[in-house]
Write a structure and sequence with these properties.
Length: 191
């Protein structure tokens, strides 16, 4: 690992909670010196997603090979044959830039990172106003089928139950309030 041991900021939540919006906002704040950890995904890009920017899109076979070679800091089969994970080399890449790492990842992966780097990690759970609101947000995206949306909603109740395991919870009922709270949390953890 790099000589520079930056902080790790984990943002996890059910799909549609607003964690990506919060993470993008924090990345735009230069004072925090954050770099986005690009996760690997064994699925095709959706909508305007770009390889090497939103995710590293790799084949299922390549993903399994990287698991076998212990190249992941964390990984999970989120849905059947649909793997997501964080490469160890990605954290190395960011620390080599002398930056802090910010993650936008599922709850299981977020908690695994917290467990591996307990002192360096701030794990934040972004809580949506309600499961009904989540469904509305996911439908507005228009990127997935009704079946996929229903799968995500079913998973959301399980994910919501993990919220108490995180260091803190941001209730994203009002985006401006949530963004301000996220900034304060990052600022405090960097001190």
């Amino acid at each position: 690992m790099s000589d520079f041991k930056g902080k790790l900021f984990v943002f996890s939540a059910p799909s549609g909670s607003g964690k990506t919006t919060i993470v993008r906002h924090l990345l735009s704040q230069e004072k925090f010196n954050l770099e986005f950890s690009i996760s690997c995904a064994s699925r095709d890009a959706r909508g305007t997603e770009k390889h090497g920017e939103d995710y590293y899109f790799i084949t299922l076979e390549d993903f399994k090979s990287k698991i076998k070679n212990d190249e992941f800091l964390e990984w999970e089969e989120v849905y059947r044959d649909n793997f997501y994970g964080t490469l160890k080399s990605e954290v190395e890449r960011i620390w080599a830039l002398k930056k802090h790492v910010i993650f936008d990842i599922d709850v299981v992966g977020g908690l695994r990172i917290k467990k591996k780097f307990p002192e360096q990690t701030l794990a934040v759970f972004v809580k949506p106003p309600s499961v009904d609101e989540l469904k509305i947000r996911l439908k507005k995206r228009s990127t997935e089928s009704e079946d996929k949306i229903n799968m995500r909603i079913a998973k959301a109740s399980v994910e919501l139950a993990t919220a108490p395991q995180f260091d803190t919870i941001i209730k994203n009922y009002d985006l401006d309030v949530a963004l301000k709270e996220a900034e304060e949390l990052v600022d405090d953890f960097l001190k």
